[in-house]
Amino acid sequence: MQTNVYNIAFAESTKQVYLHFWGCNIKCKGCVCQKVVYDFMLDRNMHLHLAEPRGLAAAPERFMAFNDVIDTLVGLEAKWVLFEGQEASLDPQMPFIAEALHRHLGTTNVLLTNAFVMPDLRHFDKVAVGLKAFNENLHREYTGESNRTILENFPRIFHSGVPMMAETVLIPGYIDYQEIEQIAKFIASVDKNIRYQIDAYFKAGNNPWRRPTADEVDRAVEAASKHLNNVYAYKGSEPREFGVKSIFPTEAELDAAELAPAVESRHLVYA
């Protein structure tokens, strides 16, 4: 049975797996997959936070079968599995992968989702919802879609009993600290103790925006903290104490892809 899984990244020291699914139901202008398709946490990709985007990354062409995903993760003796991507919940096999991992490995399964559809959470231990914007017009401009369904699904996820958090990308002059505060107010209307993470934007795609400064991130955290008890930030400059390698495709295959010549209008993964 084919899945939408196109990339498995692995942190050996923590036994944490990053399981990437292709396909999405919204089109974020700042989507990281415009810049790099394979896991941004890979050791080989860490420098890309500051790099200027040059063209668009090529879409993946290889995907894993269900049994291959499970066998690979069993072989890695995974303890934590992050279901991410683009949008993992679009894959009909996603709930069955989560169930198999619970059954075979007893993993802690974490789903990263935009909540545009209500996901099957029966075999997930935590959910992180990416809230792009609270203002509907801004959300539609940034993603191409209304956020009404997302804002309806957010409390549904909370009331399902699965521990949850939320995160938003801070984009100076666009999705700024004022919009962050409105998102925080919405989250607080569900529960003030929901963890909220503010991520610094880094340049991806053909956009005019710049990265926020550390002071701008701090200002957004301060604005959100007026309404929430657990607000954190990722500025992109924090040191990392563990390495991350690609298991599928292998590091050698990614090396070969980097060196391959571009064809017509197609860009390299690291273009």
From TrEMBL:
Location of the Radical SAM core domain: 22-187
Domain of life of the source: Bacteria
Lineage of the species this protein comes from: Bacteria, Bacillati, Chloroflexota, Dehalococcoidia, Dehalococcoidales
Named cofactor requirement(s): [4Fe-4S] cluster
Annotated protein name in UniProt: Pyruvate-formate lyase-activating enzyme
Entry GO MF terms: 4 iron, 4 sulfur cluster binding; lyase activity; metal ion binding
Organism: Dehalogenimonas alkenigignens
Record bears the keyword Metal-binding: yes
Listed InterPro entries: Aldolase_TIM, Organic_radical-activating, rSAM, rSAM_sf
Keywords: 4Fe-4S, Iron, Iron-sulfur, Lyase, Metal-binding, Pyruvate, S-adenosyl-L-methionine
Pfam families: Radical_SAM
